Automatic annotation (TrEMBL), chain A:
<dbReference type="InterPro" id="IPR007296">
    <property type="entry name" value="DUF403"/>
</dbReference>
<protein>
    <submittedName>
        <fullName>Uncharacterized conserved protein, Alpha-E superfamily</fullName>
    </submittedName>
</protein>
<dbReference type="Pfam" id="PF04168">
    <property type="entry name" value="Alpha-E"/>
</dbReference>
<feature type="domain" description="DUF403">
    <location>
        <begin position="1"/>
        <end position="310"/>
    </location>
</feature>
<dbReference type="InterPro" id="IPR051680">
    <property type="entry name" value="ATP-dep_Glu-Cys_Ligase-2"/>
</dbReference>
UniProtKB/TrEMBL annotation, chain B:
<feature type="domain" description="Circularly permuted ATP-grasp type 2">
    <location>
        <begin position="83"/>
        <end position="461"/>
    </location>
</feature>
<dbReference type="InterPro" id="IPR025841">
    <property type="entry name" value="CP_ATPgrasp_2"/>
</dbReference>
<dbReference type="InterPro" id="IPR051680">
    <property type="entry name" value="ATP-dep_Glu-Cys_Ligase-2"/>
</dbReference>
<dbReference type="InterPro" id="IPR016450">
    <property type="entry name" value="UCP005522"/>
</dbReference>
<protein>
    <submittedName>
        <fullName>Uncharacterized conserved protein, circularly permuted ATPgrasp superfamily</fullName>
    </submittedName>
</protein>
<dbReference type="Pfam" id="PF14403">
    <property type="entry name" value="CP_ATPgrasp_2"/>
</dbReference>
């Protein structure tokens, strides 16, 4: 497989996964704050959305709430918006069009048309739920088609690596964003229920609240939520789960039997093992330090992958 | 006429309508189709038409323009649901003629780049070839692998009012459009499934396999299992859909110039595991951009050193560089002589009579009868620069005369051929109207291998009365059926 095309496939995977997480985050944050009476919660939600997407400026730099919602989802001049993600996902898929299945391509293209033609005015006033929810569903369809219609070979493995590294990164960003919110709340000395509410939206943002309940049978608590999202080996959205998955797909792609020191295989093997034996007690006091380190690690991993496989 | 989509069909009596006789009767090959279409109400037909268009959009079978929006505005190629029918018997003769013509073109190319016999024998004037911008000096004294130059030929035909097909032009550089034949067929099969069975329509889906066979047959000497690839300028090229479609349907890599490099006389592609040798390259970029070391030095699309590898016989290029020397419109007029010279046969397919402006007597005729002629620059493609005498103002005619006088080699002229017309669904009026059509055929030639795609791409000039069918200038397409009717 061409290195350039491997790069296209990897980024196709990353952008699809990114579009899904951004949509879900926007959806969950926005709607969870709607029925709270406190302005604080609503303000936090918007702030949190801006942080997560990586928009420039803060809440005050937007005249209207709708402007933030448009910037995040539909602004094609903002490369971080959901619309732009989908544009880049499709461009990358197009660059590898001859290698992905027609079913995958059709799913991407149909979804692209949906986003492309979505009326902005409708979105601003009535369409936010529909837009984000349809996006999440279409991402699921695309991923299912990747799974069920493509050969499970190295071409597929690059798409899968894109999914998993992006998911690990997005979960990491969500955690950073939410724990920053929670720290703010702690500083403000408001009631504990506000913090618990934030943990609930955190878990929902990873579609993990019901599975969290099954795992712990308690309301969301800081330590358990952190453990669940970072270390749980059976929850497909935990960071640990995704790092282990990345390791597997890398094995499928990698040719050499031995793992050289400082190679990407070596690096990810170490990280995967480390996360398996880490305990939440080791970082629950200062989760942001741990999370920022992990995020930096994941970005380095991306660089290593570039260097060893995608550099053309 | 009835009250639906064919309600006020207006037969232009001075032209050949392929569907209707002059008196308004349906021609025999179209009787079953007519019966079928006639059952549609205007409203139902509109719905089917919209659904078909939408399916092209959803599959991304589009071309993009970047003028209005930097991220691209996408459009579909207009596609007409009424197919064009060519009877199996009529087709047999066309196929024979296409092979004859393209075999002769291949022999001609081999000759003008090597022995130059036809030029020495003065059958074709030497200066006509040597003055051509498309005569490629890097091809002199060299024979490509398998002895094939024009692996893929797109011969454009028109049906004249006498009922015969004529050759309008040869395209042996990078003829495009074949993917639309296949995707149009796919769409039409869904819309008209009943008819396909009844009329025994010949398949077009054997094209990718035939092209792959053709590519393998011209692999460099000593290569057993050739690695083949399709070279594209990239996703922003308007024909990218076709490039990816062909690569995918043949199971080949779709490469860009930046994926390739030359090392010690061989061509390689950069893969995730390092370099891999390439043996046959179906390039969809023009000669000029192939190799910045010998052609356009600013080309970012090609591969430095590629021509060197080619001349060493270590890679096969499809089509060979320099084929443009045989398909310009001045050489075209010599095709009957060229066929006679190499094959000793009369041309099966007739040319449209062509006046060479560089011959003084013919130029005089052109200048005096310019209102009745079509004037074409010899080396332009895509329908650009075409002058149609009966549509031009007096000033425009005078301007054209001046251009011809200043550069006679640059122009040829042909009588205004009455391109046949065909019933075509027009969105604006929600009914069928006659529109001019031509036919692009596709002929493949490998080493000891020939193939003609059954039917081809029927191109439609969607503007009423227009003769220009190119998609870049408002043309659409029809599915073409070679059918036993």
């Amino acid at each position: 497989m061409l290195a350039r095309v491997a790069n296209n496939l990897y980024w196709f995977g990353r952008y699809i996964e990114r579009a899904e997480h951004l949509s879900r985050y926007l959806n969950i944050q926005y709607f969870s704050a709607l029925d709270t009476s406190s302005d604080l919660q609503r303000d936090l939600a918007l702030k949190s959305i801006i942080n997560m997407v990586g928009l420039e400026g803060d809440v005050a730099s937007y005249d209207f709430e709708e402007d933030i919602l448009v910037a995040v989802a539909m602004d094609e001049h903002n490369n971080a918006s959901i619309k732009s993600c989908m544009h880049f996902a499709r461009e990358n898929a197009r660059g590898a069009r001859d290698l992905i299945s027609i079913e995958v391509w059709n799913a991407i293209n149909k979804f692209y048309r949906f986003i492309h033609d979505y009326p902005e005015d409708f979105y601003k006033t009535k369409g936010l739920y529909d837009f984000t929810n349809t996006t999440i569903e279409n991402c699921a369809i695309i991923k299912y088609r990747v799974e069920s219609t493509m050969l499970h070979d190295e071409i597929w493995a690059f798409v899968k690596m894109g999914f998993h590294i992006e998911r690990a990164i997005q979960i990491n960003r969500i955690l950073i964003s939410k724990f920053t919110d929670i720290d703010r709340i702690d500083d403000m000395k408001v009631s504990q229920s506000v913090a618990s509410f934030q943990l609930g939206t955190l878990l929902k943002s990873a579609e993990g609240l019901d599975m969290y309940h099954r795992e712990y049978s308690i309301m969301p608590k800081r330590k358990e939520a952190l453990e669940f999202m970072v270390l749980n080996a059976r929850f497909p959205r935990s960071i640990s789960y995704n790092v282990t998955a990345l390791q597997q797909y890398l094995l499928l792609v990698g040719l050499s039997k031995e793992t050289k020191k400082n190679s990407i295989e070596w690096s990810i093997g170490r990280m995967s093992e480390r996360l398996k034996y880490q305990t939440v007690e080791e970082f629950e006091k200062e989760p942001l330090v741990f999370l920022n380190e992990t995020l930096a690690y994941l970005n380095d991993l991306n660089d290593l992958l570039n260097k060893e496989y995608l550099n053309y | 006429m009835n009250e639906n989509i064919l309600r006020s069909y207006d037969i232009e009596r001075h032209l050949l309508d392929e569907v209707f006789e002059h008196g308004g009767d349906i021609r025999k090959p179209y009787q079953r189709l007519f019966e079928y279409f006639n059952k549609y109400s205007a409203e139902d037909f509109k719905r089917v038409n919209e659904a078909t268009k939408l399916s092209f959009l959803m599959q991304g079978i589009t071309f993009a323009t970047y003028a209005e929006n930097p991220k691209g505005t996408e459009r579909i190629f207009p596609f007409d649901l009424m197919p064009r029918v060519i009877t199996a018997k009529e087709w047999e003769r066309l196929e024979e003629g296409l092979i004859q013509r393209n075999v002769a073109i291949n022999l001609f190319l081999k000759d003008i780049y090597n022995d130059k016999k036809i030029l020495r024998d003065k059958v074709v004037p030497a200066e006509l070839i040597f003055s051509s911008a498309n005569y490629n000096k890097y091809m002199v004294d060299f024979e490509p692998p398998g002895g094939v130059y024009n692996h893929i030929s797109g011969t454009d035909l028109i049906k004249h009012s006498d009922g015969n097909f004529y050759v309008l032009e040869d395209n042996v550089r990078c003829p495009s459009g074949v993917s639309y034949v296949l995707s149009n067929r796919d769409a039409l099969k869904k819309a008209l499934s009943v008819l396909f069975k009844e009329l025994k329509v010949g398949t077009v889906f054997d094209y990718p396999a035939a092209l792959a066979t053709c590519m393998h047959s011209v692999a460099p000497d000593g290569v057993d299992a050739a690695t083949c690839a399709v070279l594209t300028p990239g996703i922003y090229n308007s024909a990218y859909y076709e490039h990816s479609f062909l690569a995918q349907s043949m199971g080949l890599e779709l490469v860009e110039g930046r994926d390739l490099f030359v090392d010690k006389g061989f061509l390689y592609m950069k893969t995730i595991y390092g370099k891999k040798k390439l043996d046959v390259l179906y390039r969809r970029i023009d000669d000029e951009f192939l190799d910045p070391m010998v052609f356009n030095p600013n080309s970012m699309l090609g591969v430095p050193g590629l021509m060197d590898v080619y001349r060493q016989g270590n890679v096969s290029l499809i089509n060979a560089p320099g084929t443009g020397a045989s398909d310009d419109k001045a050489v075209y007029s010599y095709m009957p002589e060229i066929i006679k010279y190499y094959l000793g046969e009369d041309a099966i397919l007739q040319n449209v009579h062509t006046y060479q402006c560089e011959k003084p007597a013919e130029m005089d005729h052109v200048l005096n009868h310019i209102e009745e002629l079509v004037v074409k620059p010899v080396d332009q493609s895509g329908g650009y620069g075409i002058f149609v005498g009966n549509c031009a103002s007096k000033t425009e005619c005078d301007e054209m005369r001046a251009k011809i006088k200043s550069d006679p080699r640059e122009y040829v002229a042909q009588p205004i051929m009455n391109l046949s017309s065909h019933s075509t669904y027009i969105d604006e009026t929600s009914q069928f109207e006659p529109r001019h059509v031509d036919l692009r055929t596709f002929t493949l030639m490998g080493k000891d291998y020939q193939f003609v795609l059954k039917g081809g791409l029927t191109r439609v000039a969607l503007k009423r009365g227009s003769l220009i069918v190119n998609s870049s200038q408002g043309g659409g397409a029809k599915d073409t059926w070679v059918a036993e009717v």
